[in-house]
Amino acid sequence: MTTKPILISRNMSVGYNGKPVMSQIDFSLDAGKILAIVGPSGCGKSTLMRVLGGLDEPLAGMCELLGVNVEESNAQQREATLRRSGFLFQGSALFSSLTLRENIEMPMREFLGISQLQIRQLAEYKLALVGLAEAMDKLPSEISGGMAKRAGIARAMALDPEIIFLDEPSAGLDPLSSTRLDELILKVRESFGTTIVLVSHEIPSILRTADFCVYLDSDTGTMGAYGPPKDFLLASSHPKAHAFFSQIKIS
Ligand SMILES: Nc1ncnc2c1ncn2[C@@H]1O[C@H](COP(=O)(O)OP(=O)(O)OP(=O)(O)O)[C@@H](O)[C@H]1O
Ligand SMILES: [Mg+2]
Asked: Is 46 in the pocket of ligand 1 (CB under 6 A)?
């Protein structure tokens, strides 16, 4: 059986007000894979993630998500694509006045035509999945940063998306919490076959989780390399990506 890519980017430029931040983005990703977007701070990772997720249009080139060309699609198709995608935005916070369960229930109430009881059970299931069954009635102010990230992933998973976009999910976490989050990301993919696109600075985390990696080169303003992260670590055919991945010492 041949699998059709779930995400395709062809010679794409992304940016603001007609000015490209990043160009020549060219790759395709099969369903069920984990893609990491990496590069120096401010190079355009979040900008690219929003376009790949269908939230913003590319300045040039083509982006196809879940078989829908973002630019050529109508409002109805876009909404359907959004409904099949989940997002955890950079630095995104949970609603502070709602408990974790209520935070996860919110998108369900908006989009799922099911009873309150079913919504409650589904939200509890999603929180149990991310290891927060005990904390579901807590407010965001009563939990740790690692727990908040896990709750954010549960919220991104609320509507059983086929693909989730996570912008710096492990930023600010200690190494142990970061490792646990990587394990959660791998578990989500294994349990549901979810495709995952994540932005990360954490090289060990990328090596643990990602099948493929888009390396953004801020000097040229283009995609410097695309491939499995281990290849960039081990080989120097893409010197800048190699230098980026070689920042860590492998013991
Ligand atoms: N809404 C916006 N309007 C105009 N320019 C923007 C907007 N958002 C971001 N930029 C600019 O686009 C460039 C890329 O920003 P982006 O947030 O995508 O980078 P990043 O790689 O995600 O950075 P970081 O690693 O700090 O998260 C930056 O120069 C930024 O100032
Ligand atoms: Mg960013």
From this structure: yes
